[in-house]
Amino acid sequence: MPEALMTSAEVADLLGVSKSTLSRWRTLGGGPVEVEDALVWLTPTTPRYRRPLLMSFLVGTAA
What pLDDT, in 10s, does the model give residues 9-63? Predict the structure, then answer.
């Protein structure tokens, strides 16, 4: 079964932030990029987020 990956647009929508905020978090740290291995790069310009790890991040921030 293929790994569940989310695009930046999907993650930004889910978190209620802009894609530029998500990009800034990737550059400066913060948000879901702080979850180890949550971010993968398909190409040097194509980030994807692992859905299960992103959901773990969301559960952790809600607690």
Answer: 999 999 999 999 999 999 998 888 888 889 999 999 999 999 999 988 888 876 5
For residue 19, give its domain range: 5-62
What are phi and psi for residue 21, nearest 5 degrees?
A: -65, -45
The model's pTM is 0.83
Please tell me the total count of domains within the chain. 1
CA distances from 62 to 1, 15, 27, 58 (A): 29, 12, 24, 6
HSE, side-chain direction, 13 A CA sphere, residue 24:
6
